[in-house]
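Q: what sequence does this backbone want?
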């Protein structure tokens, strides 16, 4: 029986994946670089760096750094203005919180995470939130989920991870934790063959777990 649930954030609890791509796409276009969705998704699978595409085209580090800042500004604008919340998630977390200890493990910057969750509608069910500043190496490395286990003082077999991306799945597997993949059209091209379970929506998670 599992006692702990570690949730990814983007694409699992909130629908932000597309808007992060749009922000990157827009910032790179201003540099004269076309970021194709297929290329972005391929790099995303393994935690790749799409800014290297700009560097390969001779764009300076200074210009890229300014573009990164514009990307962040665009992304935060989308977070403020677009509907990013997924129907039914709050109810599922409320239910699960009666039976499990839960935390969020995300590769998002904390400033973006806090903007998304400033009303604390979903985070009130969590014991902790780990953002990219809180561990040495991001997904697909195991560090984020190992840190989550450490905070719970838990063993890998006592926990389950809920993810929507290949790099997140790889991170969970390398940490020795079983992983549930939630269907997300944005990451549909990723390889989830090593996932323990695959579900259509977060609501289906309740049917997998034993209270």
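A:
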């Amino acid at each position: 029986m599992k006692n702990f649930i570690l949730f990814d954030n983007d694409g699992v609890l909130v629908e932000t994946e597309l808007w992060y791509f749009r922000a990157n796409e827009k910032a790179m276009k201003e540099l004269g670089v076309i970021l194709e969705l297929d290329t972005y998704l391929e790099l995303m699978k393994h935690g790749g760096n799409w800014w290297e595409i700009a560097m390969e085209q001779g764009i300076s580090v200074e210009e890229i750094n300014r573009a990164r800042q514009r990307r962040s500004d665009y992304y935060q604008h989308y977070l403020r203005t677009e509907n990013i919340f997924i129907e039914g998630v709050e109810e599922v977390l409320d239910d699960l919180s009666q039976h499990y200890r839960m935390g969020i493990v995300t590769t998002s910057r904390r400033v973006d995470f806090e903007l998304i969750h400033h009303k604390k509608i979903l985070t009130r069910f969590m014991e902790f939130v780990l953002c990219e500043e809180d561990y040495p190496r991001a997904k697909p490395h195991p560090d984020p989920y190992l840190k989550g286990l450490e905070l719970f003082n838990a063993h890998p077999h006592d926990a389950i991870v809920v993810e929507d991306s290949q790099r997140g799945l790889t991170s969970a597997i390398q940490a020795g934790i079983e992983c549930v993949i939630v269907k997300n059209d944005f990451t549909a091209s990723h390889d989830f063959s090593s996932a323990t379970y695959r579900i259509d929506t977060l609501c289906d998670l309740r049917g997998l777990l034993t209270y």
